[in-house]
């Protein structure tokens, strides 16, 4: 399939998503607490938390067994979107493109995906599309980094809204997955069943990150480079392999990206935003110990000079006043996108804590549940 035809197919599927946002139903729990060999799933104040450990094959099996039937409707959503909006004929091409992208992901991640597919009984098409279509999404998100001199908590904060179309269903499948891979950093990812790549997360070194889409770039790069490494897998590598923002930057510069993306990164000392294209990586650092990010490039050579209401709203923080978790949430709430805002979170890298709201959108004004990730990283899953 040519790059042009692939672009048309992906754009058509994205348009189908944009036209398909419906009314929200109640959100009953869809996951069942249980333990399996090497892993477990529990609820912490209403937040589903899965813990996976061991080899890629073992974590894939645990993933399939813990999420069970709940993973299947979540993985089926992309294909259902295509069928309901007359794009079913494009799905094989989208799956083919997904396979090509996944083939460029780290071998350990490919093995984990294969294990999930094997133990869920799904074909690889649904698995690869679920792990590459989200990377090609074009919906806005918002983030704030507060560095220690401005933080009432003493350590830095990274807050973010994750905004995405739900079809009235996707928000029901939000979950925190804690990975404890062999020989790598343990980390927690806020995502969905079936995902191996990372959209939001933090590791046991206190390195947190959040992805934000970008619509335009001034550097002349292609919007989609099929020869690149899928960024969701690159971001997982950052959590598995890196201790701080500088190491994250080095890793980003060592790979070829697939598309335009902002990545907000925060370690125990502060943060940065990396503006990524298939041709460039630019670093944007703090101003007055604050750093804001939405869905535009702002670095020299990448920015096209667009304005963003949400960016302006995020900046409305009283000058000189210490900023706590509640203040970050207030700015995120002011920047919410209504029925698109299905996850709101604030990471505390020094404390290894995550403040999280999941559920029916918008989540930005919901009470935040504090998850002690330090305990989840350290505690082995109970045997079956």
What does the model show?
- This protein is an alpha+beta fold and 384 residues long.
- It is 32% helix and 23% strand.
- The strands form two sheets. A ten-stranded mixed beta sheet has the order 1-2-3-6-7-8-9-10-11-12.
- Helix 2 runs parallel beside helix 5 and helix 7 packs across helix 8.
- The termini are far apart.
Largest sheet: 10 strands, mixed
Task: Count all strands and give the number.
Answer: 16
Principal-axis shape equals: globular
Number of helices: 11
Q: Which ranges are low-confidence, i.e. pLDDT below 50, for 5 or more consecutive residues? A: 1-27
Mean pLDDT: 87
CATH topology of the domain at 137-378: Penicillin V Acylase, Chain A
Please provide the ordered H/E string of secondary-structure elements. HEEEHHHHHEEEEEEHHEEEEHHEEEH
CATH superfamily of the domain at 137-378, called what? Penicillin V Acylase, Chain A
Strand percent estimate: 15-25%
Share in helix: 25-40%
Supply the CATH architecture of the domain at 137-378: 4-Layer Sandwich
Task: Tell me the structural class.
Answer: alpha+beta
CATH class of the domain at 137-378: Alpha Beta
Q: What radius of gyration results from the CA coordinates?
A: 19 Å
């Amino acid at each position: 399939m040519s790059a042009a035809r692939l672009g048309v197919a992906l754009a058509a599927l994205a348009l189908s998503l944009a036209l398909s946002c419906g009314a929200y139903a109640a959100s009953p729990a869809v996951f069942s607490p249980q333990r399996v060999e090497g892993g477990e799933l529990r609820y912490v104040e209403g937040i589903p938390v899965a813990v996976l450990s061991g080899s890629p094959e073992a974590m894939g099996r645990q993933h399939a067994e813990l999420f069970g039937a709940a993973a299947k409707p979540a993985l089926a959503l992309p294909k259902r979107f295509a069928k309901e909006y007359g794009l079913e004929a494009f799905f094989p091409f989208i799956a083919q493109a997904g396979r090509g992208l996944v083939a460029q992901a780290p071998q350990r991640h490919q093995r984990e995906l294969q294990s999930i597919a094997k133990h869920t009984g799904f074909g690889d098409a649904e698995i690869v599309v679920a792990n590459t279509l989200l990377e090609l999404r074009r919906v806005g998100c918002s983030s704030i980094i507060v560095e220690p001199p401005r933080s009432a908590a003493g350590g830095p904060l990274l807050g973010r809204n994750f905004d995405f179309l739900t079809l009235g269903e996707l928000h029901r499948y939000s979950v925190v997955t804690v990975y404890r891979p062999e020989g790598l950093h343990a980390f927690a990812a806020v995502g969905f069943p079936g995902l191996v790549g990372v959209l939001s997360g933090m590791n046991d070194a206190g390195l947190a990150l959040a992805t934000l889409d970008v619509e335009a770039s001034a550097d002349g790069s292609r919007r989609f480079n099929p020869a690149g490494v899928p960024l969701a897998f690159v971001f997982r590598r950052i959590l598995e392999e890196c201790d701080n923002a500088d190491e994250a930057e080095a890793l980003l510069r060592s790979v070829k990206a697939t598309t335009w993306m902002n990545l907000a990164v925060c370690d125990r000392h502060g943060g940065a935003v990396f503006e990524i294209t298939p041709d460039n990586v630019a670093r944007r650092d703090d101003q007055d110990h604050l750093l804001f990010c939405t869905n535009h490039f702002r670095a020299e050579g990448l920015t096209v000079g667009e304005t963003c209401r949400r960016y302006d709203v995020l900046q409305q923080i009283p000058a000189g006043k210490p900023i706590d978790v509640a203040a970050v949430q207030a700015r995120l709430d002011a920047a919410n996108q209504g029925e698109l805002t299905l996850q709101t979170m604030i990471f505390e890298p020094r404390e290894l804590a995550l403040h999280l709201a999941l559920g029916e959108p918008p989540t930005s004004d919901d009470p935040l549940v504090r998850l002690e990730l330090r305990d989840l990283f350290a505690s082995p899953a109970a045997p079956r």
